[in-house]
Amino acid sequence: MSSLVIRGQKSLAGIHRVAGNKNAALPMIAASLLTAEPVRLENVPDIDDVASMLEAAKRLGATVSRDCDEGTVVLHTPRIRSARIDAELAARIRTSFLFAGPLLARTGRASLPPPGGDAIGARRLDTHFAGFRALGAKSRPTRRSLSLHAGRVSLKGARILLDEASVTATENILMAAVLADGHTEIYNAACEPHVVDLAAMLNVMGAKVEGAGTNRISVEGVKSLHGCTVRVGCDYIEAGSYIAAAAATGGDLLLTEIDPGPFEVLAGPFARFGVTWTIDRASRTLRYISRHRRKMKYDLGDAIPSIADGPWPAFPSDLMSILIVLATQTRGTCLFFEKMFESRLYFVDRLRQMGAKIVQCDPHRVVVTGPSHLVGGSVASNDIRAGIALVIAALCARGESVISAAETIDRGYVAVEDSFTALGADMHRI
Fold first, then answer.
1. Which domains does the chain show, CATH number per domain?
2. Chain mean pLDDT for the chain
3. Is the CB of residue 183 less than 8 Å from the CB of residue 218?
4. Which pLDDT value is given to residue 151?
5. Single pTM value for the model
6. How far is CA 310 from CA 165, 264, 296, 318, 417, in A?
7. In terms of pLDDT, which residue wins out, 171 or 142?
8. Of 118, 197, 318, 410, which residue is the catalytic one?
């Protein structure tokens, strides 16, 4: 176990290169098992979740060659050695379940322990199983394992209506459908940018996928897929985290290696807090210039604004914790409505401990009034996004803060102490 020690009240300013999107890289790693030929991924973030996903791929039969400095990974799986995911790895990373679709498509079977991951609330697997069953697979879930098999009959295309717009269910069913016989239509599909990235990768591999980025994805099954070279898109959640950190501490920031598209969705909610930016599409950069004395933008009639998350293109849940911290440093009051995960907002107890003015109405809603004069203290990180939110709070606070269980942050952010120190933070790890 390690901890981050932070001395606050230093403005962050400088240039930060945005890493590859972990939520795109992880399903892309799983998709590499769909072909017997080599797959090269570029702009892969050097984070713990990627390392765990690559280790899982190795144990299934992939050979992995990785250059962390260059951000490249080459996976080659000429033969699947095992269709069973290791229990210890599954407990470490929830997206290990994304191997179900490729294993089922390639071998006709898959056996997975219940996945682990962040404790931010219940995340159903029912949508995955319903989709696999529609494609012709049979399932046998128990408390200890989740088994799928297609028997001697290959998967068959189907019309599938998802009961929720689940990102991982959409990705899993999509990966199974590309090698199924016939035509598949997935309705109420997730529209997130990383779903689009996965579909684009599959098409480069020879799949026939249309409609990614909309709620209706069409797939024409093919007999086999070939190798490819693809680039992982930018992590707009990481980018939003660094923008919030610069805004909360009163600094200026230039982000490089961005993909402009996702920032259209983030712009409106951030503007509520007086945070706006300019994007240069040619150079793929985003510039934020600090505005001191930020003020909350209220609704018509001076009504208190509400920030609510939801499936894309609604505001992403992964940035809710970060914006809550930004609200503590912005003049005004805001209601945050976390609709997707009932445990994500419990971390606000740590913010209150540091002096934030927050009322928790219920597991899904908090009211934040700012600005608050935060004071350093000892707090624990219980998930990736709560961890980075606490880092931002510590950067704003007077005195020293110690954030324990820093490994949770390492699962989603590259070299967090080095990156923030390069921007002027006083931070080190013990």
1. 3-19+234-429 (3.65.10.10), 22-231 (3.65.10.10)
2. 93
3. yes
4. 66
5. 0.94
6. 10, 15, 22, 10, 30
7. 171
8. 118
